[in-house]
Amino acid sequence: MIQLEREDLSWAKHAVPVKSALPFIESRSGRYTHRVRSASLHTSGGSTHMSVRCWCGMHINISRKNPNRLAGEPSGRPICATCEGRAIGAGQLGAREIAGRQVMYQTRRGVTP
């Protein structure tokens, strides 16, 4: 389990942030394994789903209709390079290098273009 970033959920009426989760997520229809950055649990109208935000910016939902899965270890699928580079650079699991080169990442919060 890893500690997740807290996401602004002020727009979501029935959402609760998830504090920790398994580090990887796989979409049943996708080709890649992604790294989990943040997640929230949504409950409304009698249905429940979890929305997972990946380091690459992709959102993947987990529900009964979308049986995508969180994983402790990646399966045989390739790992999304953007997710891997950003997660490692931010200090999450894994070596701080890819292909023998040091990886660093800093968010652009508060930076204006």
Explained architecture:
With 113 residues, the chain is mainly beta. It is 8% helix and 36% strand. The chain is built from 1 helix and 10 strands. Strands 2, 4, 5, 6, 7 and 8 form a 6-stranded antiparallel sheet that branches. Strands 1-3 form a two-stranded antiparallel ribbon. A two-stranded antiparallel ribbon has the order 9-10. The protein is globular and about 50 Å long. The model has no long low-confidence stretch (mean pLDDT 82).
How many individual β-strands?
Answer: 10
Assembly of the depicted chains? single chain
Work out the radius of gyration. Answer: 15 Å
- Alpha-beta content class: mainly beta
Distance between the termini: 35 Å
Calculate the mean pLDDT score and round it.
82
What's the SSE pattern?
EEEEEEEEHEE
Brief description of this entry?
This protein has one helix and ten strands, in the order ββββββββαββ. The protein is mainly beta.
